UniProtKB/TrEMBL annotation:
MF GO annotations: homoserine dehydrogenase activity
Keywords carried by this UniProt record: Amino-acid biosynthesis, Methionine biosynthesis, NADP, Oxidoreductase, Threonine biosynthesis
Name this polypeptide is given: Homoserine dehydrogenase
Enzyme Commission code(s) on record: 1.1.1.3
Pathway in which this enzyme or protein is active: Amino-acid biosynthesis; L-methionine biosynthesis via de novo pathway; L-homoserine from L-aspartate: step 3/3; Amino-acid biosynthesis; L-threonine biosynthesis; L-threonine from L-aspartate: step 3/5
Phylogenetic placement of the source organism: Bacteria, Bacillati, Bacillota, Bacilli, Lactobacillales
Domain Homoserine dehydrogenase catalytic, chain residue ranges per copy: 139-316
Amino acid sequence: MTTTIAVGMLGLGTVGSGVVMRLTQAARKIEQTQGLRLRLAAVAVHHLNAPRAVTLPIGTRLTDSIEAVVTDPKIQLVIEVMGTLKTAERAIVTALQHGKSVITANKDLMATAGEQLTALAQRQHCDLFYEASVAGGIPILRTLTDSYATDQVTAVAGIINGTANYILSAMTAGKTYSQALAAAQRAGYAEADPTNDVGGLDTTYKLMILSQFAFGQQLTIDQLAPQGITQLTAEACQQAAQAGWQVKLLAQAQRFGDQLACRVAPVAVPQTTALSQVKGVQNGVAVTSQAIGDSLYTGPGAGSTATANSVLNDVIVAAQQLVRQTCGRAFNQNHADLTVTRLADLSQRYLIFTDSSVLKLQRAANEGDFSLQRHTADCYETSVLTTAQLRQLAVDLASDGRELTALPIAFSTVTTTTAIKTTQPVHVAI
Ligand SMILES: NC(=O)c1ccc[n+]([C@@H]2O[C@H](COP(=O)([O-])OP(=O)(O)OC[C@H]3O[C@@H](n4cnc5c(N)ncnc54)[C@H](OP(=O)(O)O)[C@@H]3O)[C@@H](O)[C@H]2O)c1
């Protein structure tokens, strides 16, 4: 038996067009495998007369009234793919208040107002799903919910901003930051205002959502204090690559007992890891857990049809719940109360870049009780350093008028107790 579900959509841009395309192309399969006919009843846009990448199905109403869609008594399920914060929040609240399940791809909104919206959805016995909000086409949120249901995640590390990853890959291949950004904009991978992507805020929003699913832990932007990629040089990316690392804007959260140490920053990822091979606009999320061990999920982090696929998978789950009358269970049921700390505050190894003399570095390392290994002319790898040791090194070099760029080496962090045990007094060999 086939059940018809009336769907309303807000937005008909990159993702919205992909939804229309996939809905049409997959209609038969959806009916065959799910017993569902998804009827796109209405779509709201900002500019009614703007040219569109897709033709709407016959019978679908195009409107510039969000209100008309989210309050339409015939519509059972609303897809929000217009972006924005306040407008989208108002639209989702109204849709939920009118008893409609909602699917959104809006990471900015879900990272900042997800808790309130989820609570409202539950009170209204509606579903609120947002798979596409993290890593676009990679089904990572439902995987964490369903496939890690009995497992305990101990770490996640994600390359989850395609724009930043494209720029860093291009810089490693020889482009300057400005050339790489311009190339990303020409290819449609970067917006005219790329601030959120290159400044790390977009990655931060996604890590805030990932953390809820992986650890049950809410994070704030203040706790993450994101660092972007704008200060990096192409030379640093290239020297790191020659020495065996890929520079990546990495979102990390790692559990140590009841602590969750987090970071959004550019780091040096060892080329021996599969994550370092996630290049260009691709995304990758590495998950470490007690039962499965290490897994890596890679794929397109954005794009019209890939993102639409994640949206439509949510739509199908929500539609099935409507049919079974079982709506209202929160997408994420994982809740914990961990102490949030910063990975930056823990002892770890660094790749450092400096034009300081070898002699000066040797002296600083001997006095600071750590070791250095020279990889290329200006690139050295340190042994495990405390933040105090790193600060002191920067001060020592600054006293000589030399600058220091330090990139944390991913996955080299040790907890304070381990650091004390493993940091031996060393003598420098460069
Ligand atoms: N693009 C991706 O690959 C991707 C991946 C993952 C998640 N997302 C998320 O998906 C959402 C949509 O992204 P997108 O790239 O598809 O955006 P987009 O191409 O800019 O499209 C936005 C759509 O929303 C409509 N819209 C904007 N403000 C509106 C308003 N006040 N009232 C009615 N309609 C309005 C626009 O109407 P007009 O066309 O008439 O201007 C447009 O059709 C965002 O939250 C984004 O973060 C996108």
